[in-house]
Structure formats: C-alpha cells, structure tokens
C-alpha cells in the first residue's frame, strides 16, 4: 500500500499509484466495500477496526514529489476525502501536495461531489491545482438511477472549470436505462463501469452494460470496463479506454 516516502502501487487497473493521506469513511455502504475491508482486516494494526474513525497522515504529503515519472494517481481511495466529516485543512494540504508535483494525473472520487465546489473557490484553499498541468480528474460514484443527483452536483460544482469529469458506475447495482441519466452522462469526459465484488458478488445485467456502452459510443465518451466484469458470460467485448489525450501522456 505505502512504502516509505513513495506512493504505493494500486491494484485498480486504471491507475498506477495510490496517494492516501486520509483514511476512513462514514457512508456505511450496505455492500462489501473493498477499502473498508482492506483497512479493517489486512491493515487493522495500522488503521484500526473502525473505518468510521477518520485519520490523517501528514507524513505522506511529500510522496508525490518522490515519483518523477508521470503516473495516474488515485487520491484517497481508502476513504472519501470529500465527505462532510473531513476537515477542510486536511483536504487543502492534500491538494497542495498534488500541486507540488503537477506532472502526475490525480484521480478523485466521491459520493459527495457538491463539496468539489470548495476546490473551485479561492477561499479557503488558495491553491492552484486547477490552473497547473495537474488537471484533476474529479469523479463521483453512481450505483443506481436513485443516485443520479450526484451527477448534477458534479456538473454544477465543476461548471466552466479546467477539470476532467468522470463517473464510476461501480458497483452497477440497478438498471441505468433512464433518459435523465443519459442527459447527465453526456457531460462526462470518462465513464467507468464495474460489478459488485466481495463476499456476495453480483454482475450487472447484460442489457445494462450494452446500453451504457452504446451511449458512450453515440456521444464519443471514452469508457473503461473493469476487469471484474465477466465479459464472456455477459457476451460483451472488453474495452478499456482512457480520457482523450491522457493515455499517451502517462505511458
């Protein structure tokens, strides 16, 4: 996960590194959460057994500087750094650390995208990440149409900002075929689709994935199908695209 002064490697296939300064989450998702499981089982001696106990690790803030090759970096995927329970100062220090190493591409994900609006305001942060080469990838998770309001929050919070908007449809737990969802996905720069994993794994329906893939093709939106999808059983082609212009920069 973390080795000394360097960022850890990640097993999430659309990135190379992880940068975890904030650990923990209070969303209490009803399904198996891989971050919660990793933190409270394999690394319980380091993080404890209560994932709702939010922890900050300032000694890790210099890690991005020590990796000179440009990387796709997952920022605080071991929790939700944009949760209302996270101190603004912790977020600011993490983002300032990213700003100091602008050659990386920083990937953020939250279930609380309305808080991204804080990133766009000069106060209280005062950092330059959205105006440096480190164009942040700001994403939100949507597991069903009942949660599509998060896309509105993402779009509103990042309106006219120099960021890359993306959505993680993982785990895809409900039928996404909905006209209102289509109109919001049109504003995304990247779409990731995946299945539920853990002790009770569940694959999305074939027609759900096919509908999303066709929508991406119709609107020319790059899309990434996670390895946890059973491609042969679903009868779909494995496609793993990256946002336009970013794959060549990193590799």
Summarize the structure in words:
The protein has 251 residues and is of the alpha/beta class. It has a single domain (8-250), classed as TIM Barrel. The chain is 27% helix and 15% strand. It has nine helices and ten strands. An eight-stranded mixed beta sheet has the order 1-2-5-6-7-8-9-10, with helices on one face. A two-stranded antiparallel sheet has the order 3-4. The relative contact order is 0.12.
Short description:
With 251 residues, the chain is of the alpha/beta class.
- Tally of structural domains: 1
Q: What is the level 1 CATH name?
A: Alpha Beta
The global form is globular
Question: What is the architecture at the second tier of CATH?
Answer: Alpha-Beta Barrel
Helix content: 25-40%
Strand count:
10
Sheet having the most strands: 8 strands, mixed
The average pLDDT value, as a whole number, equals: 87
Number of helices: 9
* Strand fraction: 5-15%
């Amino acid at each position: 996960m973390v080795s000394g002064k360097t960022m850890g490697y990640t097993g999430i296939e659309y990135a190379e590194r992880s940068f975890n300064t904030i650990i923990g989450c209070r969303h209490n998702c009803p399904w198996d959460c891989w971050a919660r499981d990793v933190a409270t089982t394999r690394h319980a001696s380091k993080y404890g057994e209560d994932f709702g106990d939010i922890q900050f690790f300032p000694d890790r803030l210099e890690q991005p500087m020590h990796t000179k090759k440009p990387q796709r970096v997952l920022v605080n995927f071991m929790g939700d750094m944009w949760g209302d329970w996270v101190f603004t100062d912790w977020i600011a220090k993490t983002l300032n650390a990213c700003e100091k190493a602008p050659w990386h591409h920083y990937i953020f994900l939250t279930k609380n995208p309305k808080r991204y609006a804080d990133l766009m305001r000069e106060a209280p942060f005062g950092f330059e990440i959205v105006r440096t080469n480190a164009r942040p990838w700001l994403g939100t998770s949507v597991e069903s149409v009942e949660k599509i309001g998060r896309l509105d929050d993402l779009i509103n919070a990042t309106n006219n900002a120099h960021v890359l908007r993306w959505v993680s449809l993982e785990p895809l737990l409900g039928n996404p075929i909905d006209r209102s969802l289509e109109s919001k996905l049109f504003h995304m720069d990247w779409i990731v689709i995946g299945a539920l994993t853990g002790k009770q794994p569940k694959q999305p329906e074939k027609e759900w994935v096919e509908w999303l893939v066709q929508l991406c093709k119709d609107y020319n939106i790059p899309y990434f199908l996670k390895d946890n999808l059973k491609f042969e059983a679903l009868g779909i082609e494995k496609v793993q695209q990256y946002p336009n212009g970013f794959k060549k920069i990193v590799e």
